[in-house]
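We give this protein:

***
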Amino acid sequence: MLGMFMARRRMVAELERDGRLHDPALRRAFLRVRRHEFLPRAQRHLAYGVDAVEVLDEQTMTCPGFIAQMTELLEVTPGARVLDVGTGTGYQAAILARMGCSVTGIEVRASMHALALENLARAGLGEVDVRLGDGAPFDAILLACTPREIPAALLDQLAPGGRLVAPEGDHERIQSLVRLRKTPGGIQREEVRAAWFVPMVTPELVPQ
């Protein structure tokens, strides 16, 4: 366990050194959440590396650098309602929950849904709702999967001033990580960097 703790500290130090981790609350969340426990045992030795890790059904756990950057782009504060689309293993949801957010997750694969629930319960975060949400406006939405275009139905779920962070683009090419912000004048779009994520399976999926 000490070895994993030290590996987690090294991961955080590397993220800070690379300029991808600035928020003190996010730093604390990275240190508190045991990333290796969100992976199958056979992959746990890969938990604190720089790359994404394959888990089940050809799905991956997003690399720490993207998780840090995407979370900071959301600009969340304690109490924020966050929709996590493509919850996967539950690690991203756990990070947001440890930052004090109220997290609703959407995961369409039964195997990943079960894994996320198990992981979050073991982490003491059983209150994270990994199902379809209640349709209320969210302060922030994060996608860990790529639609060709951001679904308008998800933008409709944003509260005024809300932020949506997601990869977007052709699944066969390098995609763009974007941040969209809902303002009185419409949706503001910011392209952040190149990205590569798995395709979004059901782009029409919205909380019900």
About this structure: The longest helix spans residues 2-17. Residues 29 and 98 are 5 Å apart (CA to CA). The radius of gyration is 16 Å. The chain is about 30% helix and 25% strand.
